[in-house]
Amino acid sequence: MIRLPTRMILLFVGPALLIYGLLYLLPALAAFALSLGKFDGISPPIWVGLDNYRELFSLQGPFFQSLLHNLFLIFVPGILMLVIALLFAYWIDQGLKGAGWYRVFFFFPNIVPTAATSILWLLIFSITDMGLVNSVLRYLGLEPIAFWESSNVLWTLVPVMVWSGVGFFMILFLAAMSSIPDSLYEAARIDGAGLWSQFIHVTLPLLRDTIATCWIFIIIGGLKAFDLVWIVEKEMPTSASHTMATLMYSEAFRQFRIGYGTAMSVILFIIILGVTLLSMRVYRKERLEY
Amino acid sequence: MKRILVLLLCFNAAACTQVNTGEKGARRFEVALFEGAFGLFYYRQMEKQYEALNPELNIRMWGSPRVSDKVRPRILRRDPPDVVMADLPVWLLIKGKRLQPLDKWLDQPAYGQRQGRWRDTFLPGVLDAFTYGDQVYGIPLYFGGYVVFYNRGMFREHGWEVPQTWAELENLFKSIKAAGIAPLAFQGKYPSYAQRIYFSLLQRAGGLEAIQALDDLAPGGFNSPAAVEAARLLQHIALNYFQPGCMAMNHIESQSQFIFGKTAMVACGLWLRKEMEDKLPEGFELSCFDWPPLRPDIPYCWQGGGGSFLMSFVDAPDREEGVEFMRYMSARENMQQWISMNAALSPIKDAAKGLSVPLDLEAALSYMDRAAIMFTSRLSTRYPSLQQDHIEAIRKLITDKFTPQAFCDHMEERAAAMRRDPQRDAFPPSRLPEAYIQAREAAL
């Protein structure tokens, strides 16, 4: 192996490190410093120590509530997405007729921009005569439902998130399923396993890494949830619908509590860092060989 | 090479000549505007006229519904446009000495006048919203108030009358409901519309003093008997007379419900006509009334005041030019164009005189004449986070998640926490206007 002199290494790595330091590390450190102050963006910041963090961690405060909303948006649509994606992937992998079309059909919502997705579903669930679902309810003689009322928003977002996310996870599962050797299924069949048993005892265990990957995507996506909530709530989420990111934006840029908003972003960073480290630990575990 | 150098020098000289001789584009300034219900038509017209009058001027005018977001980073890097109309943290900007006081210009004659002061051409009190410490930091181009809109045709058809008392209003609500129509449309996605109703009811229940108690964070202001009464009435109206499902509607959806006859009324600002003009059916007789009085000893005040405020910044390079343009836009003759183009009222005295205005504005003008004073809450400019809490608490009040007493106690607690904050901004206590004191004495 050729050993490069340290100077040469620095010459190659230096520019990248410099850019990373200037555009990422420095602002991150500045953000941490800002989180220890009271700053409105115009007047000079005032040092308040850990006051912003104390306010954040109050159980009655909006931050804790918004964290619960994030957890809801991670686990409720997440579980549904994975179950549905797994089923679709399994059917397609079993050689369902028109599998190619189904792939495109299920994946398509994933490439629709969030703004367009939001507007589409705003109309579908609208309380007015334009709302598809409520029109059906009215036709059936039932009371319409105020799906987009703030206290119902998180539940209403579940089908939206499932619709738009399921295709992506289906593709991941399909890729993983296609790499499972046929010989394993053959052996299972010889042992008398039916389709269900094959799925439970062969497919599912061998998808463990993919499922872990999917959960990491879901958790990080759920923690950062912003755009959908922001759009359907007309840029004014309430205590019933705020996520950590929308609350952070509202506090920093609407209430001009930049110090408090930055403290939230520091906490969000720590949580995402924790999830990332956890995922690295999962990957470091012994991988399945077949 | 020599030839190229000579050519470049010639170009340079030509460019310099153009700047120095005051030709078109020599003087310039930038105007950034909020593009809302009124669009930019009036401002574009003013730009055209002003440039025609001043050929050496080049105005860079732009508008956006998101102008605040676009202007904010420029304010932070001290490169703001010369004239701005946007929803900005006014008090923070004043405190940070970033907004340009306009008194120097306001004490000079209005555009096209030789005598008098520009400030005296405005209706009484409309400059108050942007007045801090006796200095004025913004001038309004719009004059509006909050009212209840109704379709006069629909009222005539059902034999309904505009209510003059609270009992009549209650009866009206019941009659409308009995006719199978929802009484009030409501812009549920924006509970701040209900906050406006609350302020009107609070004034009816406790006078201007009750509004000022909120503005001043006076102890007991948020849970005074008047505040509880206003909260009780607002909740009563919301739970019984708001259109079912309205909390899932945005402003356009809910106002369309009113226009399409699914509801009989909607509470809104006077911009409603312009905002919904594309949807107004032929023959729709849009008119309005104000919330009726609750107590005979409290003089009638109308919630409203100046809007579409224009401001300038101390670090805007061409603010002098910008303020002159503000002065031009607020000239009485030009304000008449504003009224005609936007079907809206103007903050300039007598601007509507001799003009024919739509039914709703006619009704609004009559309320303006009757009112002892116009009032507006200053909670949003003084305490943005408390304002946010108030709106959120109002959402809970109108969806029955707070009782009126719990709503008031919650807000009082929030106000007390703010009072305890040693770093909070302290404002001089509000003063009751002379006109109000006289009206109050007369009512007693």
Characterize this entry briefly.
The complex is a heterodimer of chains A (290) and B (444). Chain A has 290 residues and is mainly alpha-helical.
Strand percentage of chain B lies at 5-15%
Briefly note the structural class of the backbone of chain B: alpha/beta
Name the structural class of chain A.
Answer: mainly alpha
What do we call the CATH topology of the largest domain in chain B? D-Maltodextrin-Binding Protein, domain 2
Task: Indicate the proportion of strand residues of chain A.
Answer: under 5%
Q: Shape of chain B from CA axes?
A: globular
Question: Could you describe the 3D structure shown?
Answer:
The complex is a heterodimer of chains A (290) and B (444). Chain A is mainly alpha-helical and 290 residues long. Chain A is built from 13 helices and two strands; from the N terminus they run αββαααααααααααα. In chain A, strands 1-2 form a two-stranded antiparallel ribbon. The longest helix of chain B has 24 residues, at 192-215. Chain B has helices at residues 2-20, 41-53, 67-76, 90-95, 103-106, 152-158, 166-178, 192-215, 225-241, 251-259, 272-275, 319-329, 332-342, 359-370, 379-382, 384-398, 404-420, 434-443; strands at residues 27-34, 57-64, 83-84, 131-132, 135-136, 139-151, 182-185, 263-269, 286-289, 302-310, 374-375. Chain B is built from 18 helices and eleven strands. Residues 9-22 of chain B have low confidence and may be disordered. Chain B has two domains: 2-121 and 306-346, 3-Layer(aba) Sandwich (D-Maltodextrin-Binding Protein, domain 2), CATH 3.40.190; 146-304 and 378-443, D-Maltodextrin-Binding Protein, domain 2, CATH 3.40.190. In chain B, 46% of the residues lie in helices and 14% in strands. With 444 residues, chain B is α/β, with parallel strands linked by helices. Chains A and B meet through α12 of A and α3, α4, α10 and α16 of B.
